[in-house]
From TrEMBL, chain A:
<dbReference type="InterPro" id="IPR000883">
    <property type="entry name" value="Cyt_C_Oxase_1"/>
</dbReference>
<feature type="transmembrane region" description="Helical">
    <location>
        <begin position="387"/>
        <end position="411"/>
    </location>
</feature>
<feature type="transmembrane region" description="Helical">
    <location>
        <begin position="466"/>
        <end position="487"/>
    </location>
</feature>
<comment type="similarity">
    <text>Belongs to the heme-copper respiratory oxidase family.</text>
</comment>
<dbReference type="GO" id="GO:0005886">
    <property type="term" value="C:plasma membrane"/>
</dbReference>
<feature type="transmembrane region" description="Helical">
    <location>
        <begin position="76"/>
        <end position="97"/>
    </location>
</feature>
<keyword id="KW-0479">Metal-binding</keyword>
<feature type="transmembrane region" description="Helical">
    <location>
        <begin position="245"/>
        <end position="269"/>
    </location>
</feature>
<keyword id="KW-0472">Membrane</keyword>
Automatic annotation (TrEMBL), chain B:
<protein>
    <recommendedName>
        <fullName>Cytochrome c oxidase subunit 2</fullName>
        <ecNumber>7.1.1.9</ecNumber>
    </recommendedName>
</protein>
<keyword id="KW-0472">Membrane</keyword>
<dbReference type="Pfam" id="PF02790">
    <property type="entry name" value="COX2_TM"/>
</dbReference>
<keyword id="KW-0479">Metal-binding</keyword>
<keyword id="KW-0812">Transmembrane</keyword>
<dbReference type="InterPro" id="IPR002429">
    <property type="entry name" value="CcO_II-like_C"/>
</dbReference>
<dbReference type="InterPro" id="IPR014222">
    <property type="entry name" value="Cyt_c_oxidase_su2"/>
</dbReference>
<dbReference type="InterPro" id="IPR009056">
    <property type="entry name" value="Cyt_c-like_dom"/>
</dbReference>
<keyword id="KW-0186">Copper</keyword>
């Protein structure tokens, strides 16, 4: 690839505005990307502190620190904030920063809408978090908010929760439209679809998933709103409705949603593994097809979350087979990454450490997913800590480590400085150990019979819970180190060259570091 | 590299050591006591070993690359980036493994779904936060509440052996018989789980789910509600006693007799003191989790009864709300959950306890008449 990077000539013409209006009114993809990432990290700390409350209460049997009502509010808010506040905005932030740089575009296709999609988010979360201080407390029905616990039996703040979800949904949909418009219309000449970097591919597919399922989420919360305030009975059997309908609609959104949280990480990891193996990615085309297959199949497996609701046998079998099938393209991706490393020339800077951990631990999460797919066995696993272990293995070392790997990989490009490698490696090892200590014992707890979402437990579960809490505290505290590393890197450090990683490929490395405020005003040529 | 290897060993040792030292740490599913649970266990172990085998291969290749193909050891990168044969193979082989896995899973599932030809039918209803067991063929029913004292939960008292997994009235079933369960719920969704049977099924308000079990080994089996159902979700255990058939028949006869006696109690003339004594017990199991033992409630969700206008003045309203509940709130209709005697007792108790000294009482007969007028 060759590119014409004559950007430094223009960035003197209009730099960023001064003061707060730079951030409020900005339409610059780099500014908006930074805001998304900062917001996401703030939410990560907030959601994380709620997890600390949960793990502190579960440190020992008995009720010590919080009441069951508040415990339920913590599990609910933790899940909602991590999913909608931490993981999704982090990926949108990465998309904002990197997509234009990767496809050689001067900015996102719809810059004003971009500003609007970001600023909706703090509003949504202000509303959501304020429910903690309302009469009757915050939502307490789990992040999956099953009716009728969330409708007839929900706290008064449920209405605010619904409103917040609507705003997040609008923000996500606008973000997704922007991503699609940018990728489809603004690629540099010569960059055909099958030459796009994988991060671009995975985000394109993620954006289509978002547009398909966020309206479904909006629909289900609207039906709740109608049930609560306008006398309908969508989910109320005594009025002719069906509580199970709620679960079908929710998981039709919910399962694609879990892939929304992992596909962009798949893309980023592919770049990083290839860069630090100094070897091209193995099976680029099959990677693209695998992501496509996962995305399509993700619409056909939703009821694997509902094996115990009493579906007919035929439905049970269909969803079991479909879920087992989705493990095949997921496996293909793992095999490709490992083969990319095979016979490469490997080095282990922080992005690579996080990526290797991603592959190993995400695969473990995939294994437990495969086990959960076996419907008869799921009767034992369902709604126990085994499920909690599964989704934390795919989401923490999956989504979160993917985000850390990306952040370290691109920080030199964003800030113009190298981050402190020793501290970053410390961050990795503490996170890695903490995360495994926190979540691996949860497999044992689930298999031994501990249900999820309980504030207190029987005595045989004591020891593993204690280990898990210690690991969680360790993981949580370590994340403050990440904040320190990033601040230090923004403030100064070794000057980063345009391409700090010798094995890295792509247009983003052809512009100087830090990337000037305006890049690719003239499109580069891709051969 | 040395450092990393040492760290990895230390980590593995740290994880495994406590396990080997204290061998009673349960880490795996138990095979259970029914054919269903045994089949599930073997599916679980099969898929687990398949995953371990795939893991050994994949991680083996990966660790070999990490070890041998390091830049610091002078490894020069190869340049291959596709190989159709390999890619097709690693799509087909996992597919074949999965098909092989799907066959026994399907067989087990088909068997689990066969609820025909049962010997005993029991209807299970989930309430916030207790279970009701109704012996359909024998015309009696009872509630099963967690019996762990609040003092143990609040750490004011040492925790017992079956902390949180004990109830006042366990479900009793005969061994060797096919028992069919019909599940539903009164308020929100609950889920009835006994790990040792391999039975977990959601109890959904307005719908009836079916499942079954056949237990071969007599004993006491414990489980819990597994669907988040509100604040006391963690405190609604399931306890099942599987007993030999003769013992079961005796127990059923006894229960029927007691149900008959309960009906006669409604006729009896009750004094205020008798009602207060019975009411205190009924209040503790049915009402205290929300309105609290001292009647102060947890406003605004759960209002105080102590000094409440309704408990002091509005007798009609008081009976109505206890019998019929307050729709759209957590206050359930207790009319069908409690006997007439208990309803009368609990209302009398609420009107005279904690300084609500109205001196008024409601008799079981009055409740009976009230219910009949509706
Ligand atoms: C090999 C691929 C996967 C398979 C076969 C799989 C299968 C399953 C199954 C069957 C369940 C339901 C378990 C139960 O509730 O009893 C489940 C739950 C879950 N999975 Fe996966 N999964 C896979 C990958 C993923 C990925 C990649 C993510 C996210 C990045 C994910 C996130 C979740 C979440 C969040 C839940 C639990 C939701 C809840 O109940 O709160 N899974 N998975
Ligand atoms: Cu799913």
């Amino acid at each position: 690839m060759s590119a014409v990077a004559d950007t430094h000539t223009q960035d003197h013409h209009h730099g960023p505005a001064k003061g707060i209006s730079r951030w409020l009114l900005t339409t610059n993809h780099k500014d908006i990307g930074s805001m998304y990432l900062i917001f996401s990290f703030a939410m990560f700390l907030l959601g994380g502190s709620m997890a600390m409350v949960i793990r502190a209460e579960l440190f020992q049997p008995g009720l010590q620190i919080v009441e069951p009502e508040f415990f339920n509010q913590m599990t609910t808010m933790h899940g909602l904030i991590m999913v909608f506040g931490a993981v999704m905005p982090a990926f949108v932030g990465l998309a904002n920063w990197m997509l234009p740089l990767m496809v050689g575009a001067p900015d996102m296709a719809l810059p004003r809408m971009n500003n609007w999609s970001f600023w909706l988010l703090p509003c949504a979360f202000l509303i959501l978090v304020s429910t903690l201080f309302m009469q009757g407390g915050a939502p307490d029905f789990g992040w999956t908010f099953y009716a009728p616990l969330s409708t007839t039996y929900g706290p008064p703040s449920t209405t605010f929760f619904i409103f917040a979800v609507h705003i997040m949904g609008v923000s996500s949909i606008m973000g997704a439209i922007n991503v699609i418009a940018t990728i489809l219309n603004m690629r540099a000449p010569g960059m055909t679809l099958m030459k796009m970097p994988l991060f671009v591919w995975t985000w394109l597919i993620t954006a289509f998933l978002l547009i398909a399922v966020m309206p479904v989420l909006a629909g289900v919360v609207t039906m709740m709103l109608m049930d609560i305030h306008f006398g309908t009975s969508f989910f109320d059997a005594s009025g002719g409705g069906d509580p199970v309908l709620f679960q079908h609609v929710f998981w039709f959104f919910g399962h694609p949603e879990v892939y929304i949280m992992i596909l962009p990480a798949f893309g980023a990891i592919s770049h990083i593994v290839s860069a630090f193996s100094r070897k091209p990615l193995f099976g680029y085309a099959s990677m693209v097809y695998a992501v496509g297959a996962i995305a399509i199949m993700s619409f056909m497996v939703w009821a694997h979350h509902m094996f115990t609701v009493g579906m007919p046998l035929a439905g049970q079998l269909f969803f079991m087979y479909a879920t087992m099938l989705i493990a095949v393209p997921t496996g293909v991706k793992v095999f490709n990454w490992v083969t990319t490393m095979f016979r490469g020339s490997l080095s282990f800077e922080a992005p690579m450490l996080f990526s290797v951990a991603f592959i190993i631990l995400f695969t473990i999460g995939g294994f437990s997913g495969l086990m959960l797919a076996i419907a008869p066995a799921d009767f034992q696993y369902h709604d126990t800590y085994f499920v909690v272990a599964h989704f934390h293995y795919v989401l923490v070392p999956g989504a979160i480590f993917g985000i850390f790997a990306s952040a370290y990989f691109w920080l030199p490009k964003w800030t113009g400085h190298m981050y402190d490698e020793t501290l970053a490696k410390t961050h990795f090892w503490l996170s890695f150990i903490g995360m495994n200590l926190a979540f691996f014992p949860m497999h044992f707890l689930g298999l031994a019979g501990m249900p999820r979402r309980i504030p207190d437990y029987a005595l045989q579960f004591t020891d593993f819970n204690m280990i898990s809490s210690i690991g969680a505290f360790m993981f949580g505290a370590t994340q403050l180190l990440f904040l320190f590393i990033v601040v230090k890197c923004v403030k100064g450090g070794k000057k980063a060259p345009a391409k700090p990683w010798d094995g890295a490929e792509g247009l983003e490395w052809t512009v100087p570091s830090p990337a000037p405020y305006h890049t690719f005003s003239t499109p580069p040529e891709v051969k | 590299m040395r450092v990393h290897a040492k760290r990895a060993v230390a980590l593995a040792a740290g994880l495994l050591l406590p396990v080997t030292v204290m061998a009673d740490w349960t880490m795996n599913m138990s095979p259970g006591v029914t054919s269903t649970s045994n089949q599930i266990f073997s599916l679980h172990m099969t898929i687990l070993w398949i995953c371990v085998a795939i893991g050994v291969i994949v991680f083996g290749v990966m660790f070999w690359s990490i070890f041998a193909h390091r830049k610091s050891r002078g490894a020069k990168p190869a340049n291959f980036h596709e190989n159709t044969v390999v890619e097709v193979l690693w799509t087909i082989i996992p597919l074949a493994i999965l098909v092989a896995m799907a066959i026994p899973a399907t067989a087990t599932l088909v068997e689990m779904y066969d609820t025909t030809e049962s010997d005993v039918d029991i209807k299970i209803t989930g309430y916030q936060w207790r279970w009701q067991y109704e012996y359909i063929d024998d015309d009696f029913s009872f509630f099963s509440n967690m019996s762990t004292p609040r003092d143990q939960i609040r750490n004011r008292q040492a925790k017992g052996e079956h902390y949180l997994l004990e109830v006042d009235n366990p479900l009793v079933i005969p061994v060797g018989k096919k028992v069919r369960f019909l599940l539903t719920a009164n308020d929100v969704i609950h889920s009835w789980w006994v790990p040792a049977f391999g039975v977990k099924k959601d109890a959904i308000p307005g719908f009836i789910n079916e499942t079954w079990t056949r237990v071969d080994v007599p004993g006491t089996y414990r489980g819990q509600c597994t669907e988040l159902c509100g604040k006391d979700h963690g405190f609604m255990p399931v306890v099942v006693k599987a007993v030999p058939e003769e013992e079961y028949n005796e127990w059923v006869a006894e229960q029927r007799e007691m149900a008959e006696m309960e009906r006669q109690l409604t006729e009896k003339d009750w004094t205020l003191d008798e009602l207060m004594e019975r009411g205190e017990r009924a209040y503790a199991t049915a009402c205290a989790s929300c309105h609290q033992a001292d009647g102060t409630g947890l406003p605004p969700a759960f209002p105080a009864l102590k000094g409440s206008q309704m408990a002091l003045e509005d007798m009609e309203g008081h009976i109505d709300i206890v019998v019929n509940g307050a729709p759209g709130t957590a206050m359930q209709a207790f009319g069908n959950q409690l006997s007439e005697v208990d309803l009368a007792a609990v209302i009398t108790y609420e009107r005279n306890a904690w300084g609500n000294n109205t001196g008024e009482m409601v008799t079981p007969k009055e409740i009976f008449d009230y219910k009949n007028q509706q």
